[in-house]
Design goal:
It is found in: Cytoplasm. This protein has about 400 residues and is α/β, with parallel strands linked by helices. Helices cover about 40% and strands about 20% of the residues. Strand 1 (about 15-20) and strand 2 form a beta hairpin. Helix 3 runs parallel beside helix 9 and helix 11 packs across helix 12 (about 370-400). The two termini are about 40 Å apart. The mean pLDDT is about 95. The chain binds pyridoxal-5'-phosphate.
Length: about 400
């Protein structure tokens, strides 16, 4: 049967009906352990009682008013985000790409407000992913996302990841900002070493550039800090957030310092849906849990446990797994076999994992996952890797017999 949906996704033939914590239940009753969390979105797992309560209570009161009016839930969430971070201001969006669009526009407007409208260019890094709008595919610079969509949006200069010579060479009189993910997500779980983030901060200060961090995937506790840049002890000027911030409700945010946001005055930017009461109620509820004492310690603890188990997995299956990457509960396996095959093998074991670039499989469990579920996930990864080894041996034996 053909689907009426535009066929832009090669969807797995599984239909989930409900979820509970780190588990998903399919229509046929099968239970899956969810190490994907909707691509790092369901930070508190599925059907978290505090989120369900916040959403249903707000749903009975008020969904949407537009940003023509004051939205107290949004002011409260913005205040809490400001209090917990480097930021002075927050702009709420519906997605990561929109948070990035706001960040890029803000950087351009900042230099324009400073009397330097020519400084509109942004430096980005190979392997980056910043979303699928026209500007964010230009920022990401990946050919497969740009091809066929007409002239690339002007103003993005890409350099190889970790190539400081190329970076310094590309910065010119038109450069206004550097945009980077603290850990590349879609690009294959490639972390920026904390010393390099420090060096980027210093370079931006020296050249009068704004540092924009894309924490859409790394943010809201995913790496064991509220935001990943805290590991490096630096702060950005502008930061894009989304995915986990709504725990599954579509929302994002662009955070900035007073200085970086100084061009964003009345009327220069806007959104119909961004920051509506329903989204803000859920965003506040997510933050209630993530900011609870001990929550981030839990993420660090189970993240470390999972990472240790993955090292064991690599030792057990050296022909399948080449390398372990990542931080907290944003972990990846760089594979010696096609990652799509591994994703399928894991699903055969009723474990959801997610592919990424550079032949990596991502493990992004909900942050509420417990030690028993980590052990269960390990057992299923082990079974998936063993099944792949058996398959490879079978193919080799059949080949030898012919
Ligand atoms: C997912 C992601 C985006 C895009 O977010 P959308 O909500 O899909 O628009 C941008 N940057 C990073 C790092 C992401 O992981």
């Amino acid at each position: 049967m053909t689907s009426p949906l535009l066929p832009t996704y090669a969807r797995a033939d599984v239909e989930f009906e409900k979820g509970e914590g780190a588990w998903l239940v399919a229509r046929d009753g099968q239970r899956y352990l969810d190490f994907g969390a909707g691509i790092a979105v369901n930070a508190l797992g599925h059907a978290h009682p505090h989120l369900v309560k916040a959403l249903t209570e707000q749903a009975q009161k008020l969904w949407h008013t537009s940003n023509i009016f004051r939205i107290p839930e949004g002011e409260r969430l913005a205040r809490r985000l400001v209090d917990a971070t480097f930021a002075d201001h927050v702009f709420f969006t519906n997605s990561g790409a929109e948070a990035l669009e706001c960040a890029i526009k803000m950087a351009r407007k900042y230099h324009s407000a400073c009397g330097n409208p020519q400084r509109f260019r942004v430096v980005t890094f190979e392997g980056a992913f910043h979303g699928r709008t026209l500007a964010t595919i230009a920022a990401g610079g990946q050919k497969k996302y740009l091809e066929g969509f007409g002239p690339k949006v002007e103003g993005f200069d890409q350099v190889p990841f970790g190539d400081w010579k190329a970076l310094e060479a590309v910065i010119g009189p038109e450069t206004g900002a550097i945009l980077i993910e603290p850990i590349q997500g879609e690009g294959g779980l490639r972390p920026v070493p904390p010393a390099d983030l420090k060096r980027l901060r210093a370079l931006c200060d020296e050249k009068g550039l704004l540092l924009i961090l894309d924490e859409v995937q790394t943010g809201v506790g995913r790496t064991g800090k509220l935001f990943a840049h805290e590991w490096a002890g630096i702060t950005p000027d502008i930061m894009a957030v989304a995915k986990g911030i709504g725990g599954g409700f579509p929302m994002g945010a662009c955070l900035c310092t007073q200085e970086a946001g100084k061009g964003m005055t009345v009327g220069v930017h806007g959104t119909t849906f961004g920051g509506n009461p329903l989204a803000m109620a859920v965003g506040n509820a997510v933050l209630d849990v993530v900011l609870e004492p001990g929550f981030l310690e839990h993420v660090r603890k189970v993240g470390l446990l999972l990472k240790q188990r993955l090292a064991e997995l690599k030792d057990r299956h050296p022909h399948i797994i080449a390398e372990i990457r990542g931080e907290g509960l944003m972990l990846g396996l760089k594979l010696n076999v096609p990652n799509t095959d591994f994703v399928n093998a894991a699903r055969q074991q009723n474990l959801i994992v997610i592919g990424a670039g550079d032949n990596v499989v991502r493990l992004l469990p909900p942050l509420i996952i417990d030690e028993a579920e980590i052990a269960e996930g390990f057992a299923r990864l082990d079974a998936a890797a063993s099944a792949m080894e058996a398959e490879i041996r079978g193919v080799a034996q059949r080949g030898a017999a012919e």
